[in-house]
Design brief:
- It is elongated and about 80 Å long.
- The two termini are about 40 Å apart.
- The chain contains seven helices and no strands.
- The model is unreliable at about 5-15 and about 215-230 (pLDDT under 50).
- It has helices at about 1-60, 70, 75-110, 120-130, 140-165, 175-180, 190-210.
Length: about 240
């Protein structure tokens, strides 16, 4: 029948248009989600920096204030880091979808010679919409945020403590005198100094091993800012 033939020719075009509209609206929604969680992600380092700067300033304001006040910021900063790593995991859920759409949908739409085939990447996107999963483990998220921000914050805290015991209440005449000033109750100053060094070295190792153990890069490709995209690098879905 001529009418049936006409419907057969129109149907794929309508389906393609609907699919395109759905993906465009999905892309806009994911952009908004990424921006929202990016803003939330940017707040927590600000909290840490303000707290650390305020505590160090207050501790240095009087030579008689104990250097342990500076160390109080370590557990608080660690708690904020854990919170931020969790936020980063959620942020990566939305950003991974965004990159999936950019790589496979928008790039094809902007290429005059490309088409929009129903390849495996759509199944990946569909499954991710049905059952969202973290694309980055908690350890990898901690490593990323440490390397980007928190190693600098922790190094500021530790250096601030060492400087405090060196110059307050007066210039320390020897390392022994400085370590005695760092004593907290029955815990000797050298033990605290060793703990701080081991703590910082451990964080440094975590930050670099955690990042590079999951990072992959195609030849000639701009490296993703953070890890967690190896699930998209599988050639099976292209």
């Amino acid at each position: 029948m001529p009418e049936d033939k006409e419907n057969e020719e129109i149907e794929p075009e309508i389906t393609s248009d609907i699919l395109g509209n759905v993906l465009v609206h999905l892309y806009r929604g994911e952009v908004q989600r990424v921006n929202t969680w990016r803003n939330r992600l940017d707040r927590t380092p600000y909290w840490s920096m303000v707290m650390v700067a305020g505590m160090i300033t207050w501790a240095y304001a009087s030579p008689n204030r104990h250097p342990a006040l500076i160390l109080l910021t370590i557990p608080i900063t660690s708690a904020i880091l854990t919170l931020e790593a969790n936020r980063y995991q959620i942020h990566e859920v939305w950003r991974s979808r965004l990159r999936l759409l950019e790589e496979n949908f928008l790039s094809n739409m902007l290429d005059p010679e490309a088409t929009l085939p129903r390849t495996e990447w759509m199944k990946v996107l569909s499954n991710d919409l049905k059952e969202p999963e973290h694309k980055v483990s908690l350890w990898a998220a901690l490593a990323v945020r440490l390397r980007r921000v928190y190693l600098w914050i922790f190094s500021t805290i530790i250096l601030g403590w060492f400087m405090k015991i060196t110059i307050h209440p007066t210039q320390a005449e020897s390392l022994y005198v400085a370590m005695e000033r760092g004593r907290i109750g029955f815990i000797p100053g050298p033990s605290i100094a060793i703990f701080l060094i081991v703590f910082f070295v451990s964080l440094s190792v975590l930050s670099f091993i955690g990042v590079y153990s999951v990072k992959e890069k195609r030849e000639g490709e701009v490296l993703e800012e953070e890890p967690g995209y190896e699930w998209r690098r599988n050639e099976d879905y292209h």
